[in-house]
Amino acid sequence: SPNNESEYIVDQELANAINILSSTDSWVNDVIVNDYFLQLERRRPEFVFCSSFLYSKYLKEGAQSIESWIPSNISTIRRMYVPIHLTDHWVLVSMDNDLK
User: Fold this and answer.
1) What is the pLDDT of residue 91?
2) pTM
3) Which domains does the chain have, with CATH numbers?
4) What is the mean pLDDT of residues 48-76?
């Protein structure tokens, strides 16, 4: 089916990126993070996995610039994950509404 085929392509792209990272001195980049989040989103549709560009867009352009990137029903979302790139490091911010 087309869905399985597209999942296979994403899985292969991510596997190739991980192989490159493990065999070189390469760094994790936004492509790898976003591809991985795409896979997680397919497997866990009840969670929200944000783009790695969300935080930098928020800092540069303000909260209104990312309103369309965040679901309007945020209070009903079980979990939301936001990757943040800080120069040489990645940080993962998580919101867990199950812990209310």
Assistant:
1) 95
2) 0.74
3) 2-99 (3.40.395.10)
4) 92
